[in-house]
Amino acid sequence: SPSLPKMRFNVALALALLVDGYEVDRMQFLDIRSFDGTVLQADVSRPKAASGAERFPVVILANSWAVPQVEYAVQAQQLASSGYLVLEYEARGWYGSGGQIGTAGPDDQRDTSSVISFVLNQTSWQPDPTKVALVGVSYGAGLALLGAGHDQRVTTAVAMSGWMDLERALFENACPNLVWGEILMASAEILGRPSTQLREMFHAMIAGNESAFHEFGLIRSAKRFQDSLEARQVPLFFSNNFEDRLFQPQDSLDFFEAYKAPKRLLLNQGIHASAEMGGLVGLPFNHVWGEVRKWLDTWLKGQRGPAPPMVEMQLRSNRAVREEFDTWPSNRIAARSYNMGPRGKGFHGSLLQSPEEQTEFESITFSKTTGINAGLPVVGEVLQVYVDRRIKSDLLLSSREHAIWYYTEVPQTRLCGTPVLSLDLMASQSKWQVIAYVFSVNRLTKVGTLLTHGALTCWNCTAGQRETRQIQLRSLCDEIGGLGAGGLALALNLYSDLYQPANANGDLTVVFHYSENFSLSLPVTEEQSASLLV
């Protein structure tokens, strides 16, 4: 794998301080020898001390997947000018660092401790050993949380566009995240040196081998360290994006809700790492990095300002608005439940708030073409964010044989949180997959705008056995109802390009039973908070 001496030299020359504060030494590139002799490439940005007695809080950043460590160069210099000692490094297996990509495994976690020790041992840099933060985006975010759990010297951690549970990210509800899995593997093969285990686990995921992937994911998940982090009361800052289909927002929201220590969560509109991107390239007024700076000032420097809201959710229909919640779960959010009513000979079934006793059932069969989808993988997500082109499906043109949808009209309503779908179903074969979509619908044309989606897969069920399942759909903060879009729909089919299908047999049939166990719960914001304009 190539080292990047010319690029790093140019980065160091190009960076100039544009803010007042400490004078900062020019970025210095260096090698760090880890616990097993593996050499990790790194760089440091150091403020110049006013005296030999001064000590600087430490900020350590690990690279994102497939990105060299200089991705944080702008932020590193800005943090250094504010009195932080900042080191960024390339995790093993990437670019000029030695070893193989361990996917945040035990060796990567020990590397983090080696990097901390290296920084604290540089007495001429004047580090404060009692004030150490781990910060990162994407892969670096996961390493930050795992490092905080692994090493008791860590004071706080900041995770932007990261994961809490790796199995949920790549294999949630037993659905192999095919598109992102292939992107991660291809970039690792081109830009790094993937381990044999990484290749094996990718193939195990695609094959639906849940037991093999479970242990691999658990070792690499922050939830494994939740008890020890809480025992030390480690403050954790999270930022995730609603359209992130790699590290989905409900993973962070669930971990955040369960975590019993100082915490803060931003849920932004955007795809993977897009909300943080502007700060990485030096664009001013990036909300996420601005809040990260306040967090570090609070927990590493003791600078206490007005208490921010515990949770912020940026509204999709008006991105200048952020819903603010001082506690989570919030008593301002109530579940609105719908039961499904049969389609019969009509175009669609019904979403019923007052469920009726039902003994009926209806079925759909497998096809890759149904007229209902979650958008072109990656491209559709990018267009949603950068040119505001929402993902749409014409529900009236959807296949009656291969899809089914349920509809109701709704008043203007703000939804913030995680929808939950309960299914009462029976499949004709032992392997199957169900995809669920929630749409805001134009009440005249019945064209649906995608709000959220989710999937459920079974790799070894009993064919012909009726069962109930419950899944979370992707968290959201959006508005439905109102003029021209006063409809709400739930749609179901058996295939999406996003996931590896468990069964592509055209004879596969899934029956949905209309019972109290076939329902959709939506998180309705009953009061609107004082909004934060950004």
SS elements, strand count? 24
Shape: globular
Give the helix level as a range of percent. Answer: 25-40%
The main sheet comes to: 12 strands, mixed
* Structural class by SSE content: alpha/beta
What fraction of residues sit in β-strands? 25-35%
Rg is 24 Å
Instruction: Quickly count the helices.
Output: 13
Q: Mean pLDDT, rounded to whole units?
A: 93
Model regions low in confidence, pLDDT < 50 over at least 5 residues: 5-19
Q: Whole-Å distance between the termini?
A: 41 Å
Written account of the structure:
The protein is of the alpha/beta class and 534 residues long. The protein is built from 13 helices and 24 strands. It has helices at 5-14, 73-81, 106-121, 139-150, 166-171, 178-191, 196-206, 210-219, 226-232, 249-258, 274-280, 287-301, 379-386, and strands spanning 28-33, 39-45, 56-62, 85-89, 127-137, 156-160, 236-241, 263-268, 311-314, 322-325, 333-341, 349-352, 361-365, 392-394, 403-409, 413-417, 420-427, 432-441, 447-458, 466-472, 476-480, 487-493, 509-513, 519-525. Strands 11, 12, 13, 14, 15, 17, 18, 19, 20, 22, 23 and 24 form a 12-stranded mixed beta sheet that branches. It has a 10-stranded mixed beta sheet with strand order 1-2-4-3-5-6-7-8-9-10, with helices on both faces. The protein has a two-stranded antiparallel ribbon with strand order 16-21. α3 crosses α4 (139-150).
Layout: helices, strands, pairs:
Elements: H1 5-14, E1 28-33, E2 39-45, E3 56-62, H2 73-81, E4 85-89, H3 106-121, E5 127-137, H4 139-150, E6 156-160, H5 166-171, H6 178-191, H7 196-206, H8 210-219, H9 226-232, E7 236-241, H10 249-258, E8 263-268, H11 274-280, H12 287-301, E9 311-314, E10 322-325, E11 333-341, E12 349-352, E13 361-365, H13 379-386, E14 392-394, E15 403-409, E16 413-417, E17 420-427, E18 432-441, E19 447-458, E20 466-472, E21 476-480, E22 487-493, E23 509-513, E24 519-525
Parallel strand pairs: 3-4, 3-5, 5-6, 6-7, 7-8, 8-9, 12-15
Antiparallel strand pairs: 1-2, 2-4, 9-10, 11-12, 11-24, 13-23, 14-19, 15-22, 16-21, 17-20, 17-23, 17-24, 18-19, 18-22
Helix pairs in contact: 3-4
